[in-house]
TrEMBL record:
Entry's Gene Ontology molecular function annotations: carboxylic ester hydrolase activity
InterPro entries per record: AB_hydrolase_Est10, AB_hydrolase_fold, DUF3887, Hydrolase_4
Domain DUF3887: 14-100
Record's protein name: Serine aminopeptidase S33 domain-containing protein
Pfam families xrefs: DUF3887, Hydrolase_4
Residues of the Serine aminopeptidase S33 domain: 179-399
PANTHER family: ESTERASE ESTD
Length: 431
């Protein structure tokens, strides 16, 4: 039996998926055993991967990793968010540490759909009720939930806007449901909350058929957020003059743009919102994840160099809608990047008169305090209606932890930190 540990194999599996993302199929195949090399040579692997991307959308990020053992083989499941679906890349290793099988499967959502949600201590279930609603945006209907405090109100309200990928209304990631934490925690303190299924989650095939490679954040995020704001304003017991918008991750980055569309909002809450271009963020994340294993391997160095070239392509003034997504970081469509290139979150926020609360985890490697949070601080310095707060021990999900944050950390059950929930509730109610 090879001396590689299961942690080594996890890292190898991530490197294999990263090679696919970079369209470096020669590197991917070099990790196969002889049988798999013959069965799935480089050209066939390329076709296999391109077919998956056409069906599921381009990959957004790696969100989790798990393992299993079967008949002497060790299996690593790398869970990925694609544009229109969550998928598990199943990587099977033989006893020599070579890949002897791969498969692409719909992500195992058993933990998120059948397991019992264990509420955080700050959620008082006697203090609120939940009501199922639909968010209608033209031809799109999205199921959602309004969590309403008990009483006559009128209560302040907040709409939650998800991060990247096909998120459900709870922003489920492994065993965790950060948006459910926020909804139950805020409603326990007198704030009504609307959360909804993302369009790419509720209608993945239709979304792909309608937009394909021409999708931008307007179709993916903005239109449905604006519809949700209108619904919450009109909902019984909600104060229409005190409706706020909260965005997490890319949702946080886009919140100022939504605020520019709807100037009647009472305020914006930005949780882990990036201020830098998406391609730069992708390069920083891959570099960080590779650094976790210590000194970079030659293959990792090559992966990073290829990604740097794709980042340069993304920044090329000649970038057009015809640029193949295979030439761009993480296979992101050119139209999506071009749309974001015209938008500068911190500068747009600077031009708004809305109150803003900007929150950042100190252990967040996806949206970093050193770059992104400092970007908000620099742009919004001197604005008296802006509050910024850094939580040193929290990660991208605003869960507490120690040491350097890792992708595997998201597989550990946790909750949005109580201090964060209390800070948001106090800030909303104060306004």
């Amino acid at each position: 039996m090879n001396s590689l540990t299961i942690e080594d194999l996890k890292q190898h599996a991530i490197e294999f998926v990263t090679a696919l993302v970079k369209n470096d199929f020669a590197s991917a195949v070099s990790r196969f055993d002889d049988v798999l090399k013959n069965a799935l040579p480089q050209d066939k692997l390329k076709d296999y991967w391109n077919t998956l991307n056409s069906q599921a959308g381009s990959i957004q990020q790696i969100t989790g990793i798990s393992t299993a053992e079967m008949q002497g083989y060790r299996i690593v499941f790398v869970t990925c968010k694609f544009g229109w679906a969550n998928m598990d890349v199943q990587v099977v290793f033989n006893d020599s540490g070579l890949i002897s099988g791969i498969n692409f499967l719909p992500a195992n959502d058993i933990s998120s759909t059948t397991s019992t949600y264990k509420p955080p201590e700050y959620a008082d279930q006697s203090a609120f009720r939940e009501y199922e609603i639909n968010v209608d945006t033209g031809e799109w209907t999205l199921p959602g939930t309004i969590t309403m405090p008990v009483g006559d109100g009128p209560f302040p309200g907040v709409v939650l806007v998800h991060g990247s990928g096909p998120n459900d209304r709870d922003e489920t990631l492994g065993p965790n449901k950060p948006f459910k934490d926020l909804a139950w925690g805020l409603a326990s303190q007198g704030v009504a909350v609307l959360r909804y299924e993302k369009r790419t989650k509720a209608h993945p095939e239709k979304f792909k058929a309608v937009y394909g490679q021409n999708c931008t954040v307007k179709e993916e995020v903005i239109d449905d957020a604006l519809s949700s704001i209108r619904i919450l304003r009109e909902y019984p017991n909600v104060d229409p003059d005190r409706v706020f918008l909260l965005g997490h991750s890319i949702g946080g980055s886009i919140v100022p743009r939504i605020g520019k569309h709807d100037t009647g909002l009472a305020g914006l809450i930005i949780m882990a919102g990036s201020t830098i271009p998406m391609e730069d963020s992708a390069l920083a994340q891959v570099t960080y994840i590779y650094s976790l294993s210590g000194q970079l391997t030659e293959q990792q160095k090559a992966d990073i160099e290829l990604l740097k070239k794709q980042v340069e392509k993304a920044k090329d003034p000649g970038l057009s809608a015809d640029t193949p997504s295979s030439e761009l970081p993480l296979g992101i469509p050119a139209m999506y990047l071009m749309d974001l290139h015209r938008y500068h979150p911190a500068e747009v926020a600077k031009g708004l008169s809305l109150r803003m609360l900007i929150l950042q985890g100190g252990r967040d490697y996806q949206v970093t305090p050193e770059v992104d949070f400092e970007g908000w601080k620099a742009a919004l310095a001197g604005k008296e209606n802006v509050t910024l707060k850094l939580y040193p021990e929290l990660n991208h999900l605003f869960f507490a932890g120690e040491g350097r944050s890792t992708p595997q950390e998201y597989d550990i059950e946790g909750h949005v930190d109580a201090e964060v929930v209390h800070d948001i509730a106090r800030w909303i109610i104060k306004g």
